[in-house]
Amino acid sequence: MDQQFTIQTNSTFREFYTYLTGMNLQTLSFIIISLKD
């Protein structure tokens, strides 16, 4: 049961991390575009 919970937590954390990374990439792209103008 502990292992199952750990696997579920890891997948959730991975999704959250991917979400944050995506947001950071979008923000960086937006900042770069703003600096170009």
Brief sketch in words of this structure:
With 37 residues, this protein is an all-alpha fold.
- Tell me the overall shape: rod-shaped
How many strands?
0
Total helical segments = 1
Distance between the termini: 54 Å
Average pLDDT for all residues: 85
Structural class: mainly alpha
Strand content: under 5%
Q: Could you estimate the helical fraction of the residues in percent?
A: over 70%
Order of SSEs, N→C? H
Please summarize the sheet with the most strands.
none
Give the radius of gyration.
Answer: 16 Å
Unreliable stretches (pLDDT < 50, length at least 5) are: none
Keywords: Membrane, Transmembrane, Transmembrane helix
What would you note in describing this structure?
By secondary structure, this protein is mainly alpha-helical. 95% of the residues lie in helices and 0% in strands. It has one helix at 2-36. The longest helix has 35 residues, at 2-36. The chain is rod-shaped, with a radius of gyration of 16 Å. The termini are far apart. Keywords: Membrane, Transmembrane, Transmembrane helix. The chain crosses the membrane at residues 16-35.
Give the tags.
membrane, transmembrane helix, mainly alpha, transmembrane, rod-shaped, single chain, 37 residues
Helix/strand layout:
Blueprint: H1 2-36
Transmembrane segments: 16-35
Keywords: Membrane, Transmembrane, Transmembrane helix
